[in-house]
Write a structure and sequence with these properties.
- The structure holds 2 protein chains of 2 kinds.
- By secondary structure, chain A is of the alpha+beta class.
- Chain A contains 29 helices and 16 strands.
- Chain A is 60% helix and 8% strand.
- Chain A is extended, with a radius of gyration of 42 Å.
- Chain B contains 15 helices and no strands.
- By secondary structure, chain B is an all-alpha fold.
- Classes of the chains: A alpha+beta, B mainly alpha.
- Chains A and B meet through helix 3, helix 8 and helix 9 of A and helix 3 and helix 7 of B.
């Protein structure tokens, strides 16, 4: 869009433009305007074409009341459909020949542009007639050739094939006399012919039935291979001969042959048939020549089709779409009106397009663009984004298309989505592989996007930027966890908070008894209070038996903090939405109580977690005050009205904390009726006012508006309140999946590491064989389970957290997407088009 | 509960297929679709309207439209749907679906023989057969000279061989053809009836009504068509009545009557049938008995599609779809021949 405007920068219409709202584009959707175009009738087609190439306007169907076949341009659409049918016929010809359309030739035509539709139609029609005629000829000739070949097969069979031993005749005749009373006219009769092998069983059965078994049948494979006349595929055929005695039987068999489309050929048992054989050879030779000539002209046609079919297709699709749009326009007299949605930035481009079309058609009446500001219709949502942001936007759109101008969660999703994924997937090794793979897709995207891929790969490819971001963020969290393939790494050396004493003496010298903890039967000593590990989690935890407990506590708390944080950001976005429409009612009676409830309960919990982390418990314990269990504190917060037991306070004193908690709890509880009651009452009052106003001024109620029902509003508010209050609890708990998934990932990696790889390493005697196998298993499992399956599940959970927990706080998602009329989107890409032909084989 | 399973188990084998059948039944043209296509001025318009229905782009590869082309493509669609169902059907649904095709096979056999008698080419005849009634070797029928041949050559090995009974008639005159047709149909109905009884369950409950109605319709039609036919002895006429349906008790009486008044009299004890025949007259084609039976059967088939967990819906779908194809043919013909005033005489499947 921008480029169109830029390209025509000098000639851009310079009149006053409607102004663009702030932050439009990605944070909020583009400002859209409903435009009415007045165009001279003769210029409509060209105008629509130009606008279609720009792809900036979504046309409204102004004739929705008229049925399809009563519209103005239906006959043009029909003729396009006719052309499409012809194209399909041509494509079928290509497929039959196993040819792929030569899209390169068609691409070269691009610049030359504009093929006249009528000329093209005629060209296609003639070509179709030609091709059909050639094909008919070709098939007829092939049929003749097939027959001749069959006859040749019959004639060139060994004599012995047709000879029966002397007994047969008497045998058949004697049977005949006993079973039927048919009068015979003489000796044996025979029928020779060729049949496809697939019909053998049926044919034999029919023969048997027709003659009551009183016949002799013999069949043998043809010497030369046959092809099916229509499909040109190999077809096995058999030469057969049937001997019968009676004329009636022979008639019947001939009839059967006819009905089953089995060809019979005369074969004389008396003379040697050489004459016929020569004749047929001659015939075959002529047929071959004619066939070659026909094939030649057929090939010419196919070549032409292969070169031009893409160009034709492109043209026909374009024209058909233009006529479809033309059908949505209202015509009156010499001018017509079209209405379309246009993003405000696109209006100059549209004006330019109108002008250009006007010039192209030498229209005498200038086209006019009129911006309709007073429309009540809901406007389409349109975000401007690039290919990186687009994928993240798709994740949001899949949940719901944003309402016009509401805050787009897609912006924050770009960062939060891969970050939450990283929390669950954090592992330097796995993330590195993922990043590497995603980088490959990104660096070679031009090349890859022009080559055919299977469905699943296309899906991965389309999500390459999400994948890349996920990889990078998982690498970052992997560093935070200091995890690589499930084992803890120490990038900054081993020294840290903890140390394992090497000797008894060491214990005596360095261990402070109060902090000695038993790790794997060893005594771990805290020897250096000031030596905090420079980055991430101290890898020395890996060797302690309390590693899991430590990690769980850390990750669980982190999950809850992130969760409440993200939900709070969601609430802020809600506030921004309300502020934009200046909805005070929603700000004070929806947003405020919601935020109070969230922050005063779970927000407070987060604060306590941080306080607990920051408190120096060494000193506190020395003073006789141990760390309280936050779980217990929270339970008491809700169940005992915020009371804190004497020894279980976290900050200040038990008395202070109890006071603070009581205030918080009271506010949170008061927030619930504040959320529930005022909004329905206010709406009720507003409605009463409106009724009074209408009664006073005698205005009718708007027909478009839905009937007003107080009970509905009340029920809606009750549901919302319950949902929100319960949601705060359940959504916060829902964020614990961050911890759970992260734990599962780390544990799985560790298990695979120690049971596949380390086990193999221990068993191996230095030959390397077991190591080879066990390493392979470990690597396969790492790729299959940890990289593919685990990343899928982490992706899914990140998705859920965004859709349910985050979007649920503010996102309406009930808009409809801006779908501009863009010709480019409708035409298949050349390589995709060509690939469809390759697939057939 | 029967062989098909009931509420608990039916879906294990046939749930998916049944769902597809109901989906296809939902795709039957509605009254408004009919209303639209009867307004069309040309077949092109009709094509345009049908493109908006479940028929979709079924005519997109046709260069020129004719009522024949429309009918054939529409029938192709029915056949494709049916073949797909058949290919995915477990036992005994597969056999049940086969039974549906037997009726078309019988029709094809008769069509081929009478065609062959009038000396038409085999290929031409084969093209006219109903695609649902194809079986291996059906073409060999044209080689048959008499009824014995017919059986020996083709029917003996075919799926419908079991419906055939040897009779003393051996030539293919017009009367014997009708006789064979009736005989095959009678046996077909009886076999199908018995088969449904074996299946049992809901299928039996639904199919019992449908087949009994078919049998009664057959008996009444046959009776009316054979008023005063000398070749048909009264006891032989009775032999052609299927031993199925509510009219079994009066077969004896029906075999002996020769006019409509007597027929009405005999049917008086059967209120629903009597309702169909009571104001019967030979002259009014729109009000003919055939149409009334048709309307009644449409109603029954629609009822069968209202129920679940039975095979009758497959049967009903095929019948209604076939009717729909006939309707399309009728409307297309009327459009071509500009018989506007008769265009609404198609069979109403969904009344307004």
């Amino acid at each position: 869009l921008q480029s169109v405007v830029m390209a025509h920068g000098n000639t851009t219409y310079t009149g006053p433009e409607p102004e663009q709202e702030a932050a439009s584009g990605f944070w909020r959707s583009e400002t859209m305007k409903l435009c009415r175009l007045h165009i001279q009738r003769e210029a409509v087609h060209q105008t629509v074409h130009i606008l279609g190439k720009m792809g900036v306007a979504e046309f409204k169907d102004l004739n929705y009341e008229t049925s399809t076949f009563q519209r103005q341009f239906t006959h043009n659409i029909r003729s396009c459909e006719d052309a499409e049918r012809r194209l399909r016929y041509f494509e079928e010809q290509l497929r039959r020949e196993g040819r792929v359309p030569n899209v390169e030739v068609s691409k070269a035509h691009k610049e030359q542009d504009e093929i006249d539709l009528d000329t093209l139609q005629q060209q296609l029609e003639t070509l179709e007639a030609d091709v059909k005629e050639t094909n008919a000829n070709y098939e007829r000739l092939l049929g003749q050739q097939d027959n001749a070949l069959e006859y040749k097969e019959v004639l060139s069979q060994d004599r012995a094939f047709f000879l029966v031993n002397g007994d047969l005749e008497t045998q058949l005749q004697s049977e005949d006399t006993t079973t039927t009373t048919t009068t015979r006219t003489g000796g044996l009769r025979h029928i020779t012919g060729v049949l496809p092998a697939s019909k053998l069983a049926l044919f034999e059965r029919l023969l048997y039935r027709a003659t009551r078994g009183n016949m002799f049948f013999r069949a043998t494979k043809t010497k030369e291979p046959f092809k099916d006349v229509n499909t040109r595929k190999a077809l096995e055929k058999l030469v057969f001969v049937v001997f019968v005695t009676a004329q009636r039987a022979e008639d019947k068999i001939r009839k059967i042959c006819e009905s089953q489309q089995i060809n019979t050929y005369p074969y004389s048992l008396e003379d040697s048939n050489t004459e016929e054989l020569d004749k047929i050879r001659e015939q075959l030779a002529t047929l071959d020549q004619t066939l070659a000539a026909t094939e030649n002209s057929r090939n010419k046609h196919v070549q032409q089709i292969s070169d031009e079919v893409y160009k034709w297709k492109r043209e026909i699709i374009t024209q058909k779409s233009i006529f479809n749009i033309c059908n949505q326009i209202v015509y009156c007299g010499r001018t017509c009106q079209a209405e379309c949605w246009v993003p405000i930035r696109g209006i100059p481009a549209i004006r330019l397009g109108l002008k250009q079309a006007e010039n192209d058609c030498r229209a005498t009446v200038p086209s006019v663009l009129e911006v309709l500001d007073d429309t009540k219709e809901s406007r389409p949502t349109y975000f401007r984004h690039n290919k990186v942001l687009g994928t993240f936007q798709d994740i949001v759109d899949a949940y719901g298309m944003g309402r016009y101008k509401e805050v787009n969660p897609g912006v924050l999703t770009v960062v939060t989505f891969p970050f939450l994924f990283g929390i669950m997937f954090g592992d330097v090794g796995h993330a590195f592989i993922m990043t590497l793979f995603a980088s490959y897709l990104v660096f070679f995207e031009t090349k890859l996007s022009n080559s055919p891929m299977n469905e699943i790969l296309v899906m991965v490819f389309n999500g390459r930027y999400v994948l890349l971001f996920m990889g990078i963020f998982a690498f970052w969290t992997g560093l935070l966890y200091n995890d690589m393939f499930g084992i803890m790494i120490s990038p900054f050396g081993g020294n840290g908070f903890w140390r394992f004493p090497l000797s008894e003496q060491d214990v005596g010298e360095n261990c402070d008894g109060a902090f000695a903890a038993n790790a794997n039967g060893q005594t771990a000593c805290k020897i250096n209070f000031s030596s905090v590990y420079p980055f991430g989690i101290d890898p020395q935890w890996a060797e302690t038996s309390t590693k899991l407990a430590f990690m769980n506590s850390l990750k669980m708390k982190m999950a809850v903090i992130l969760g409440v944080g993200q939900m709070f950001v969601g609430e802020i976005l809600q506030l921004l939405n309300h502020i934009r429409v200046r909805d005070h009612k929603q700000i004070w009676f929806r947003w405020l109580p919601e935020v109070v409830f969230l922050l005063f309960t779970f927000g407070y919990m987060d604060v306590m977690i941080v306080i607990k982390w920051l408190t120096n418990w060494g000193d506190e314990m020395a003073a006789g005050h141990g760390p309280p269990l936050l779980l217990g504190t929270m339970t008491d917060f809700f169940l005992s009205m915020g009371t804190v037991n004497n020894d279980a306070y976290l900050y200040g004193s038990a008395e202070l904390q109890s006071k603070v908690q009581r205030v918080l709890l009271l506010c949170a509880v008061l927030a619930v009726p504040l959320l529930l009651i005022p909004i329905p009452l206010i709406e009720y009052r507003q409605h009463q006012k409106k009724l009074a106003y209408n009664a006073l001024h005698g205005t009718e109620e708007d027909e478009d508006e839905e009937p007003w029902d107080f009970s509905e509003i009340l029920i809606h508010q009750i549901i919302h309140t319950i949902e929100y209050v319960l949601g705060c609890v359940s959504n916060t708990a829902s964020y614990l999946r961050l911890w759970a998934l992260s734990l599962a990932h780390a544990e799985l990696s560790e298990v695979f590491w120690s049971f596949a790889w380390m086990l193999g390493l221990n068993m191996d005697q230095g030959y390397g064989i077991i190591v080879f196998f066990m390493w392979s298993i470990w690597f396969a499992v790492t790729i299959g389970v940890l990289l593919l399956m685990e990343s899928l599940s982490a992706f899914l959970h990140a998705l859920r957290l965004h859709w349910v927990e985050f979007n649920g706080k503010f996102y309406y998602g009930d808009g409809h997407k801006f779908a501009p009329y863009a010709v480019k989107e409708m035409i298949p890409k050349p390589f995709v088009y060509a690939a469809a032909f390759q697939k057939q084989d | 509960m029967g062989l098909t399973g009931d509420l608990w188990t039916f879906n294990v084998g046939c749930g998916g297929l049944e769902a597809i059948v109901h989906g296809l039944a939902n795709g039957l043209l509605r009254q408004e679709d009919y209303h639209n296509i009867t307004q069309c001025d040309s077949l092109e318009d009709m094509k345009l309207h049908l493109a908006g229905t479940d028929y979709g782009q079924f005519l997109q590869n046709e260069a020129t439209l004719s009522s024949k082309v429309i009918t054939e493509r529409a029938l192709d669609r029915l056949v494709n749907d049916f073949k797909w169902l058949r290919a995915n059907a477990p036992w005994p649904l597969g056999e049940f679906l086969d039974y549906i095709t037997y009726e078309y096979m019988i029709a094809n056999v008769l069509k081929l023989i009478s065609g062959a008698r009038s000396g038409k080419g085999t290929l031409e005849l084969l093209q006219k057969t109903h695609p649902l009634g194809q079986f291996e070797g059906i073409g060999a029928l044209t080689a048959a000279q008499n009824i014995d041949d017919l059986y020996d050559l083709v029917l003996g090995d075919s799926p419908i061989g079991k419906f055939f009974q040897r009779t003393d008639r051996t030539d293919f005159d017009e009367f014997s053809m009708e006789y064979i047709r009736s005989l095959l149909h009678k046996n077909y109905l009886e076999h199908f009836y018995k088969f449904c009884e074996e299946i049992g369950g809901d299928t039996w409950m639904v199919m019992k009504d449908l087949l009994e109605f078919e049998a009664d319709r057959f008996v009444v039609t046959l009776t009316r068509n054979t008023y005063g036919v000398k070749e048909l002895q009264k006891d032989e006429r009775k032999k052609l009545f299927p031993e199925v349906g509510q009219l079994v008790t009066v077969h004896e009486d029906l075999a002996n009557i020769d006019d409509d008044d007597a027929l009405k009299d005999k049917l008086r004890p059967f209120p629903d049938l009597y309702a169909l025949v009571q104001d019967l007259s030979m002259d009014d084609p729109a009000n003919s008995l055939e149409n009334k039976f048709m309307e009644k059967s449409v109603q029954l088939h629609k009822d069968s599609l209202q129920r679940q967990f039975h095979y009758g819906s497959f049967f009903s779908l095929v019948k209604l779809r076939e009717l729909e194809v006939n309707n399309l043919m009728w409307i297309a013909e009327c459009i071509i021949q500009n018989h506007r005033h008769r265009i609404n005489e198609y069979v109403n499947i969904f009344e307004a």
